[in-house]
Amino acid sequence: MAPPAQCLDTATGATGQNGTVPVIGHTPEKKMQCHNLLDADEFRLQGHQAILCTLVAARDRKLAEIGENRICDLVVYCSDQTHFAFRKAARIAGIQRDHCRAIHTCHGDMFALSPTELQAAMQADVDAGLVPLFLCATIGTTQTTAVDPIGELCAVTAPHGVWVHVDAAYAGSALVCPEFTYVIHGVEAVDSFSMNAHKWLLANNDCCVMWVKKPSALVAALGTEQEYILKDAASEGHDVVDYKDWNMTLTRRFRALKMWLVLRCYGIQGLRDHIRSHVRMAMAFEEMVRADERFEVVTDRTFALVCFRLRPQDKFGGEKTANDLNRGLLEEVNAVTSGPYMSAANVGGMFMLRCAVGSTLTEEHHVGDAWKVVQDRASAILRKMEIIYSSR
Ligand SMILES: *Cc1c(COP(=O)(O)O)cnc(C)c1O
């Protein structure tokens, strides 16, 4: 077993005076300090409940300010790359269907949310008498791992009193490595932040971790008055956090135990090694793609995902046939029984293959082998194209 993480060695069981140290719930050894991401408290729940609960907290806070009857005026914001979990949460929270602004992103911005576009959208809503409520920004979007510029976005939302949530479901795990913390530049200004330890931090499904700046907003929205059954002396004295008041569920699974075991088994160094090895393998794959001029890397690789495609070739119909060509390639790659399994992204009208390194057992030679399969299938497809186009 690897030596315990440094962050565990310093665990004191204390959470700091005003919750300055995020804690991972209650564990067999009192509480643990964790990576100091946000000046905020933390708890965990399943999947995208994090988004829903914070949205409800933000909604109630705003309605307390502007009046309950104005729920129909609330508007929420995201990008066209935001996970559909957000749209779903907005519906459940009672936001009008046409008040969810999915702001268009473009290739030039690497599909990140543009602060200028956000500013324009918010201003238009304010001018129309509507009330901006919530922004869901993403670090590591699902399709291409785009990184929204949190600091700049917060500068746009601040004058409107908008709650900013950061969804770092996948890429949040990379933040155990200091070299990745630049991706959350400006995060001090956000209201809440969530990541899924079950995606890339070796915890099994489900284990979503959330930091929230003002838990009181959650308690105001989700806390119960009639807590006589569950109250005990400790919670009266506020020594115990009553997570049932932060969340939708009352009785909950002991998810912190999984996280605790992962931290104990791997330690901070082990977790960093794990993330870095995946990033290194993705970089190796990226280099191989770049070295073959038939291919292009479509979006910048930031974490362990490489989005690539066969370049459109004029002699085969150019951009018009590029998507079909790449769709065909993906099908062929996945049909190779002993080969890799890859998925696709369709962003900005471009179909691309996704090589995601994220499995615990993946080793360098697998990545090399995967690339050989892609090259081999590409050669076959391009040969077919030559024949089809030469007979025209
Ligand atoms: C996977 C993912 C989600 C959804 O997470 P669940 O655990 O399935 O709720 C949300 N956002 C992003 C960016 C994701 O990658």
CATH homologous superfamily placement of the largest domain: Type I PLP-dependent aspartate aminotransferase-like (Major domain)
**Proportion of residues in helical segments:** 25-40%
* Percent in strands: 15-25%
Q: Kindly report how far apart the N and C termini lie.
A: 64 Å
As laid out across the biggest beta sheet, the strand order is 1-7-6-5-4-2-3
> What is the name of the CATH class of the largest domain?
Alpha Beta
Shape: globular
Instruction: Give the helices and strands as they follow along the chain.
Output: HEHEHEHEHEEHEHHHEEHEEH
The CATH topology name of the largest domain reads Aspartate Aminotransferase, domain 2
Q: Which runs of at least 5 residues are low in confidence (pLDDT < 50)?
A: 1-43
Rg is 23 Å
Largest sheet: 7 strands, mixed
Which molecules other than protein and nucleic acid are bound? Answer: pyridoxal-5'-phosphate
Count of the separate structural domains = 2
Structural class: alpha/beta
Number of DSSP-assigned strands = 11
Instruction: Tell me the number of helical segments per DSSP (H or I, 4 or more residues long).
Output: 11
